[in-house]
Write a structure and sequence with these properties.
The chain is an alpha/beta fold and 263 residues long. The protein contains 13 helices and 5 strands. The chain has a 5-stranded parallel β-sheet, sandwiched between helices. About 4% of the residues have low confidence.
Amino acid sequence: MDKPPIFIIGCPRSGTTLTRVILDSHPNICCGPETHLFKNIKIFKEKIFNYWKMLMPYGVDEVSFNSQLKEVFSIFPNNYMKIKNKKRWAEKTPDNIFLVDFIDDLYPNCQFINIIRDGRDVVSSYKKRWGRITIFKAIKAWNKSMDLTCSFHSKFDSSRYLEIRYEDLVLHPVEQTKKIMDFLGEKWTSSLVEHHKSKHDFWYNLDKVSDEDVKKENKEILGSPNKPIFDSSIGIWKKKLNIFEKVLVNIALKNNLIKFGYK
């Protein structure tokens, strides 16, 4: 792969899956289902480093160790790239926004696309997907994501880091996908705004027993964006949150809502 890998990041429920299938529709780029591997690889590295002094006689430095960890992860997207007969891979796991420093250590030339969405809509989406009990988790996740986003402004230059507003993406998909392609150094194609016409892989049903049963369950997940782009989810919090929840999110998210221009 000549061009650097792409990492789609953002608070969960911010439109990262939509961005994933958009990129996956490009003739040169493949982006498979979420892997959730980096958080586990990071845990593995931390456990190894608890015994690093004991391992020093083996002469392995951290740079070499990171290189091997990189190879472990790359097995999956590299093989997926061959299966899809494409030239470049992207990875989308929303929690990766909390692991950017770790990913950057492994892939110092990678490119990040950070999807930003109104935190109140994020909370509403959490509630719809996982229930009211997750509202406080959503508040914490969005605030943390926005705080990290502020740090990315000084950490990365424009060749490696791009921010896309979910609201802009669904309201002006052609303009925003062209912006993404300019950032990635790829040619724009209309397939990006017709992603619903392409086939995309989703997680298998892990409850099935046999391999054959698992393969039959490669179906669209609930709420899959494998349909035309729509903008009806903008401001959905006004309809889906009750009065107490509205007051709560506006207070809890106030500082970052103002900072990022959400009224």
